[in-house]
Known about the structure:
The chain is α+β, with helices and mostly antiparallel strands.
Amino acid sequence: MTGWGWIIYRFSRSKLDVHVTGNNAAAIYMMRNWKLAFQLALILLTAVCLQLSPAHSQNGCGEKDDCFIAYDYLSDQNTDPFLIQGKLLDETHPRWKEYRRVVKRYPNVRSCLVREEANKTDPNLLKLDWRRVGAHRGAQVCVFRIANSLGTVERIRNWLVYHDFARIRSHPNVSERFRLPHPNYPVSRISGWWTVEQYREANPSLLRSTFGIDVILKFSLSIYFNEDGKVVGVGGTADGILN
């Protein structure tokens, strides 16, 4: 029982009539009614607070439009050059041609956000423009920008929860005896996954929209960290019936 029904129930269960005798009857009666009045006022105050406060969702920040996440700074290509598995993406990198245009398209964290958020003095980094960014290379670059801005694993986890990623886990990326080939090598990661329905909201498919079939089963996103806890890469994998 919740709301006003619960309050009325509590009030009706209280003992309003006091059966006492002697010189202290009046004092006892006033004390008991004072306690009753205090109890009722407390119940009313609690009910009002519950009515005014937004309902909490599973991500812990209530209505999504009201959510905001703290960050350390606003990352860009100068402060945090884009890395793939800890290696700088430059002209010598084997995947340079594959990523060079998307890195140029999203040079900073603001460029990844919805347009009404991008120019704010204190932008909300939860407002990634999935429709524009998509769920492939654009998402990898932009999540890299956002994760570096957030600065902590806890904030990154909360960001993933906000965007409805499931089965979010932090786990090692290498064994204890593994010899790191370079200082920025990813030693741990945090990951989560989307259903195909969630994935297609960010990455529409003509095959799915036309015929209602899909080759994708789910989409997983991983953020990688080096030994110092610095973000050194982001990977996205679309698992399907063909792989």
